[in-house]
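Slide 14.
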Amino acid sequence: MLAPNGIAALNVRGQTIHSFFGFPPRLIDQSEIKKRRNRRIYQNLEILIIDEISMVRADLIDHMDQFLRINRENPLPFGGVQVIFFGDLFQLPPVVASDVEAMLFQGQYESPYFFSAHVFRTEFSMEMIELNQVYRQESRLFLRLLESVRLNRIDYEDLEELNERYLPEFETEDFYITLTARNATANRINQQELARLNTAQETYLAKVTGQFKPSLFPTESALRLKKNAQVMFIKNDPDKRFVNGTIGKITSLDTHSIKIAIQNLRGQTEEIDLAPMEWEILKYKPSLTDPDKIETETLGTFTQFPLKLAWAVTIHKAQGKTFEKVIIDLGKGAFEHGQTYVALSRCRTLKGIVLKQPLRPQDVMTDPRIVEFYEQQGQ
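Slide 15: predicted structure.
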């Protein structure tokens, strides 16, 4: 979204960053970056804030740099805009999805990480500010163990303490969500658990208006649910009854509402009467009355219950969320840098974690390029 004071805050977990800059969600050629008709919106930009920077690829950073130089008619990096990056690079890395993309990065970039973008080879001053306050966890022991995993400094005793949460006899309970490494595993678990319920299935169809591409739908357009199904909220509630990531259990289904039981932080069960909610696709444009302000125009809407089946979710999709009770299933083992750390750190407490398999030293992986980057910034 773009605030009226010239600050752009971009969410890179969806397609917002592409929509704002006009990039399609694919590799593009520099020749495709051209001046926009309403480029005053970019000329008024003062600060660009990018969240979850660990998942932003180097080529996208270069595209933003060139786009802003062209549309602001300013040869400075990012067209002279101050850029603020938020994120933890020790979490999940950018996705390089195909062999073609892999060849691109091998030939043009030292790594897919944002800091390998060519713009940073110029006279670009980057200042690192480390935020030390942790809000998700409180236990000093758990925080110490998480930091050991994050920095790949884990020793035998740390591993033994974490593996106390390997409970082979554990039987899945309500409000536990399985974090798994692969999409196929998460989908299989969700569909199997839904099929086991002997309650009637209801289908809720989303209402879509205007220009809202199916690839941007936040949940299923035909949402199939049953009573007693475990679900996850995927939107923050304006009334603060739930947040994106809250786990609940459906207690009743109606045509226009769904009742869901959730557990609060005190472990008490509360019931929420849920109605459909709306997502918007917004277009940003200069104000017709004040050239220094930005206005929004709604291009499309998606109205649906803000829910997804949630017996399981991938670790990638869990990044940024907070859970009270998780089952971590790494299958044959972690295969990505930061994967184990992200899985463990989604939970508020060590007691809330159940390990499907014992953790092994090889499940804790840290990319040496990230370590080198942090060391250089600390000089």
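Speaker note: The two ends are 35 Å apart (CA to CA).
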